[in-house]
From TrEMBL, chains A, B:
Enzyme class: hydrolase
Entry GO MF terms: guanine deaminase activity
Family: Belongs to the metallo-dependent hydrolases superfamily. ATZ/TRZ family.
Protein name, UniProt field: Guanine deaminase
Length: 458, 458
């Protein structure tokens, strides 16, 4: 789909390299008819004024006002789409109750396609309004409802990677909500892959299918093998949960005599296109294996506080240059905002460093090593997520997809208070990362298309 | 000041007892000319319809729409008013840099009364907009600027307890920012107390003075003694930091051969009207002492993640029925929202329970005992804070001050998604606690006065 080229005059913040903030003050961003960044000019570059004047004359100039900033779109590496109605609910009950009484019955309702369409439309609107330009979704076991999610993302313009969930083990999965058997699960996954690829063909599809075994405990060996064949045949992304909790870690070790990561690798499910949610209990050997395969990790600090029994060793993963991004993990996590994700990644890394138990002496309480900072957190939510998914987006560079958001610090409901002459641009960025909410997001673009409207070109 | 009585027709949520949610569906709340709750009627009570009709006829009925709810106002038990411009900034530097390069130079600027007035007006507006109806403020060492904060709170209608900070120890405090000496600090504190009481006289003053030694390490013995005499003579609230970090705990033990709490008690500074910020490193004996004195604790989970070296043992404190509330601790904490405070109290309690270090076996990693739930968190932010301050507010009961907020779940920027027929009122309350932001707060009342306007009476 051809779009109308346009030029943005904006001060942008981005973190193209891990932990490094670049402030692009009053730059011109030219977006081409394919929705890619054709050019970026700084005020010191030749032709800056001419280009700006020309765009203004053509009425294709979007000029940001004081207090407005351009940021890369946010990337959610782990979210359960069907759990959207449950967001912020039932987090006061034990995991077993959460799963059996709330989550599985809710996911089972997506057999009803009308219900699915209603919720998924609300979901995608809600995420876009929070600045999520790319989402890696777990859907449900239902092919038609999962395809409806793909259609909705496409229609609303959100970049999405979507998996029909596979869970076929009758011992671990409830009767009312599981695949009939491994053969059916594999066949329906293949149909889903083909249907999504038919929906969004071409070399740069906005929506892609993902092979999605829920996690090893919910799948038979036969299902895991069959999905691995599909992954190879279709060169597809793969997503699953990995070593989230003590229980999950121990279950896989008992079943296969090796770790979750090693077991997935044994099935051929650990590839450059694999995203492992959580991975809190991976050890050094697992880290080496995951890094060697080029697989990515979706760090979900908020849901981990509730259900994971421990924090993900984020600093260690970053220091190894592993592929890591952030997931909201709705509804194990209650917040749809990846700004919240950044903030929880930050506070969790602090608590991991210092420890939490005051009765222990400091040297036994904490884990040595620096916590992450806000630039690293924002990298995780943008360029890090894009790297993990191998997508050409996540920062502002010539040739990348223009996935971005306009953040307005001066809206009525803003908690970002900037004091001129006191705050540097670097301070402004930190204030945005730490206090931006839904209400600060005035506009969102994906692949150059404006999918949430705020201000008009001037 | 007499106000116009009015009647609210609303579904209200409150937690008058710790951990117990009461849903008052479609109740009528009559607010008298003193700003107190004169009466609460349920639809089953005699006279409900007549009262509603009469209020409508008098045009004093405020009727909430679908999706709007009434909640008690939020109480911030620990906030550094002068650090408002620094909110969300400089949290990537070590504590020593944060203090010496950022915080003390910023606080020193409040010698400039114009600067103070500008920032404090922005601060009080920002907190009211976040639903904070009562705040216990640390100001600075400057009497005039601290008094300006009192005037601004009074003018804007926020309930406030304000302390001119005392820090007179030349070894611990920077030359550019400390009291001249103990005598001056005590004299200026006394003048401040009298000035605030002259500003807000009467039995139910909206604004009150608070005796505020910054913390033991920054005060000489002479200052601590003098402040304790003032506390007794004026029957004043007291606030200070207590056992926040390893360093602070050890410093006091080295200086006095006993804990922070015991030392404060020795000086006569631990009373029913004392609020201790943080208190992460208090032991059983300290807890018993604090509970016996009836002093309160301001739990600040967010800033603790950054600067405290450990988490406050909240469950243990609640199980002893200690007086505990929540503080934002701006700008050690970056969020002005006590809803965020609730959320950080929740996730911290989870992480304290399960532990954070995945390499430890589960039995060594965590601390046994239940985490807190969202009803307890909301109690901390409302009735718990009121109890700690000994103020007649924090829930909806006849005779209490009407400090409340109108929470609108259906505003454009809401992350609270309610599904009719799927969410119970209890679910709605949990969704509010976990996802309410600034943008959801449509109206705020303190002592019956509407201090943030949204909808009009219909």
């Amino acid at each position: 789909m051809k779009k109308r080229p346009f030029t943005l005059a904006a001060t942008a913040f981005h973190t193209p390299e891990r932990g490094i903030l670049e402030v692009l003050e009053k730059h011109l961003f030219s977006i081409d008819a394919e929705g890619r960044i054709a050019d970026i000019l700084s005020p010191a570059d030749d032709g800056y004024e001419q280009k700006k004047e020309a765009a203004r004359a053509e009425r294709t100039l979007v000029e940001l006002a004081a207090g407005q900033f351009l940021l890369p779109g946010l990337i959610d590496l782990h979210i359960h789409a069907p759990q959207w109605p449950q967001m912020g609910k039932a987090l006061d009950v034990p995991l077993e109750v959460w799963l059996q009484k709330y989550t599985f019955p809710l996911e089972a309702k997506y057999a009803d396609l009308d219900f699915a369409r209603t919720v998924y439309a609300d979901l995608v609107d809600g995420l876009i309004a929070n600045g999520t330009t790319t989402a890696l979704y777990f859907a449900t076991i239902h092919g038609p409802a999962s395809l409806a999610l793909a259609e909705i993302c496409l229609a609303k313009g959100q970049r999405a990677l979507i998996g029909k969930v596979v869970m076929d083990d009758p011992v671990q999965c409830p009767d009312f909500y599981r695949d009939a058997d491994a053969t059916t699960a594999i066949k329906e996954t293949e149909q889903f892959i083909e249907a999504v690829r038919a929906l969004a063909p071409g070399k740069r599809p906005l929506v892609q299918p993902v092979i999605t075994p829920r996690f090893i405990p919910s799948c038979t060996d036969e299902a895991l093998k069959g999905l691995s064949h599909l992954a190879a045949r279709y060169d597809c992304h793969v997503q699953t949960h990995c070593s989230e909790s003590d229980w999950a870690k121990t279950f896989v070790e008992d079943r296969f005599g090796q770790s979750d990561a090693a077991s997935l690798d044994g099935f051929g499910l650990l590839t450059r296109r694999t995203i492992l949610a959580h991975s809190n209990f991976i050890d050094e050997e697992d880290m080496n294996l995951i890094a060697a395969r080029g697989a990515g990790i979706a760090h979900c600090p908020l849901s981990n506080a509730y259900f994971a029994n421990a924090a993900f060793p984020l600093r260690a993963a970053l220091d190894r240059h592993m592929h890591v991004g952030l997931g909201t993990d709705i509804s194990g996590g209650y917040s749809p905002s990846l700004f919240d994700g950044c903030r929880h990644a930050l506070s969790t890394s602090r608590m991991l460093q210092s420890g939490v138990h005051a009765h222990l002496p400091p040297q036994e309480r904490g884990l040595p090593g620096a916590p992450i900072n806000h630039c690293e957190a924002f990298w995780l939510a943008t360029a890090g997520g894009a790297q993990a998914l191998d997508l050409p987006t996540g920062s502002f560079r010539r040739g990348l997809e223009f996935d971005a958001l306009l953040l307005d610090t001066r809206v009525a409901h803003s908690d970002i208070h900037i004091y001129d002459g006191y705050d540097t641009p670097e301070d402004v960025f930190q204030k945005i990362v730490l206090n931006a909410t839904h209400g600060n997001i005035a506009k969102v673009w994906v692949s150059g298309r404006e999918i949430l409207k705020g201000i008009e070109p001037r």
